[in-house]
């Protein structure tokens, strides 16, 4: 789904350029915000990218946020222990790939899972898979990251910001904080959201 959405955004960007329209901006909320950041990283020209209520990876959402309690960890743990399914092999392949790309990950991977719950293996597997496919560090940095503004809620329990700071992954981007949680900020802070979107687009147009 994410790949299809990113391709669709790229096609729309290209079509707008052919029509002589631009510059282009993209935004989204929650999972849509994360997909907006991924789509923005694919476009080869400067564009306004405003991911709302998302962060660097989807892994933290399902392993440290409130949605952690909605995952059937016992079932996943059981499936990981079933050799016929081969789920554990996926994690091993991802770990080996990351070690090859960054030798420092070897010690990090060994330390992961220490002090974990009885479903630690399942949570570690989920983290590895989601980080591999969704972490911003695995995607290109936008052409002009200074045109990227991450909007996040101060008390967001759905999308923890415990993972790597987006500003270290995309140097030059900025983060704006809104009062409220994941849902209340979306419902009650729409005026501020629109102002941020308009301001980001105006700055991009002024520099074009």
Blueprint (SSEs and pairs):
Blueprint: H1 2-18, E1 25-29, H2 31-42, E2 48-52, H3 59-63, H4 73-80, H5 87-101, H6 105-111, H7 120-134, E3 149-153, H8 166-169, E4 174-178, H9 182-188, H10 190-207
Parallel strand pairs: 1-2, 3-4
Care to describe what's here?
With 208 residues, the chain is mainly alpha-helical. Helix content is 52%, strand content 10%. It has helices spanning 2-18, 31-42, 59-63, 73-80, 87-101, 105-111, 120-134, 166-169, 182-188, 190-207; strands at 25-29, 48-52, 149-153, 174-178. It has a two-stranded parallel ribbon. Helix 8 links the parallel strand 3 and strand 4 (174-178). The radius of gyration is 19 Å and the shape is globular. Mean pLDDT is 85; it is low at 103-116.
Shape: globular
Number of strands: 4
Q: State mean pLDDT (0 to 100 scale).
A: 85
Helix content: 40-55%
Q: Which secondary-structure class do the elements indicate?
A: mainly alpha
